[in-house]
Design goal:
alpha/beta; 2 domains; Rossmann fold
Length: 375
């Protein structure tokens, strides 16, 4: 695999956050499970046909001030995890702590309002998030009204400040427009302002740039990092795009079928992926540097579709698609036993039997000299 270089930091990075600022855990998930019943014709008789194991037992810690990227294909469970964190989905099992306080059973009442002042969500699609009949002012002010914060004048001042912080300047020119009068990038800035207006500590950003033109994405990512530094924000950044995670995150957690397959510092996960699934994702990332002269990039294209979360394979849930499982003599173990996360270095771990004992897999992807002229 050709050595990659992280995209120029001047494009998206902001002032670095001190190591002490990202050391204290803000949010902790332990044994988190979210299972949804599969209902069929027997539902009227109270019989379910099984469960969809959307999140199937994960442990995750997010430090104050860091950006943790949760990466995976559609159906991996990353969005469901985010919905649990913002209290839109109830977990089936496990616990959740915010600064050491158990908030697993916080549902409704003043406690939930207090929680949501500290934890906010940026939705993926600004077109679906905004009410076409609401002005921008009314959309951003709505959380303040629900929380009963301030007078009308106070709320207007906070709305304008949030719009300004989100890059909509002068804020007064945008406050009383309607969504159809804004571009896609401006709409997403409005959604960000709606999350900022309560001065939260943690923001769950669910694919916040996937609906935007490529030319706008860098601006939004830079804005989010600037806000992290300026407002001491913590992000759980959910994305299917590993290259975006590499740019913005301090740590990356790779999910597959409801489990974390690999987690570690962003640079470590990209440069030394320990799980075959992470290796395959890294291999298809666009590289800012071309291969060496006379070489080409070999990519590991996974075969088959992600299995149904209602029928997760036994053993390692990735083994039916794993390019390594068919090449080494551990196929029986892969089919029968699910591997835990094995340490691979400081804060780096991978859930693969080939990584047991901290071993690093030889990359399946590498720069090779072309054997012929075929592409």
């Amino acid at each position: 695999m050709t050595e990659t270089t992280k995209p120029a930091p001047a494009l998206v990075t902001s002032a670095p956050v001190s190591s002490s600022a990202i050391s204290a855990p803000l949010l902790r998930l332990a044994g988190l499970e979210v299972h949804f019943p599969v209902r069929g014709a027997g539902a009227l008789l109270g019989r379910n046909k099984g469960v969809v194991r959307a999140v199937d037992g994960i442990d995750l810690k997010i430090r104050r001030g860091e950006v943790l990227a949760l990466v995976g294909e559609s159906g991996s469970g990353k969005t469901t995890t985010g919905r649990v964190v913002v209290k839109l989905t109830r977990p089936t099992a496990g616990s959740m702590e915010l600064e050491g306080v158990d908030v697993t059973d916080v549902w409704g009442g003043r406690a939930l309002k207090t929680y949501r002042r500290r934890v906010q969500l940026i939705f993926q699609d600004p077109y679906e998030t905004l009410n076409p009949r609401q002005t921008i002012h009314d959309f951003v002010a709505e959380p303040l009204e629900v929380q009963g914060i301030g007078t009308r004048e106070d709320r207007t001042a906070r709305v304008l400040a949030a719009l300004d912080a989100a890059g909509l300047r002068p804020a007064a020119d945008f406050a009383f427009r309607f969504p159809h009068e804004l571009s896609g990038g401006q709409r997403q800035r409005v959604v960000i302002a709606g999350a900022l207006v309560l001065d939260p500590e943690l923001i769950v950003a669910d694919e916040p740039v996937s609906m935007l033109d490529v030319s706008i994405r860098t601006e939004i990512l830079k804005l989010m990092l600037d806000l992290r530094s300026g407002r001491d924000l913590t992000y759980l950044f959910i994305t299917h795009d590993l290259s975006v995670a590499w740019v913005i995150a301090d740590r990356i957690a790779v999910m597959y079928l409801g489990k974390i397959m690999e987690i570690g510092p962003a640079e470590e996960v990209i440069r030394r992926p320990g799980h075959p699934y992470a290796q395959a994702l890294v291999s298809v990332m666009p590289s800012p540097e071309p291969p060496a002269a006379g070489a080409r990039q070999r990519r590991e294209i996974l075969e088959g579709e992600t299995p149904d979360a209602a029928h997760i394979p036994t053993g390692c849930r990735f083994h039916p698609r794993c390019p390594w499982a068919a090449r080494v003599g551990i196929m029986d173990r892969c089919r029968k036993e699910e591997p835990p996360l094995f340490p691979m270095g400081e804060e780096h771990a991978a859930a693969c039997w080939l990584a047991e004992g901290g071993k690093v897999l030889a990359p399946l992807t590498r720069a090779v000299a072309p054997a012929s002229s075929e592409v």
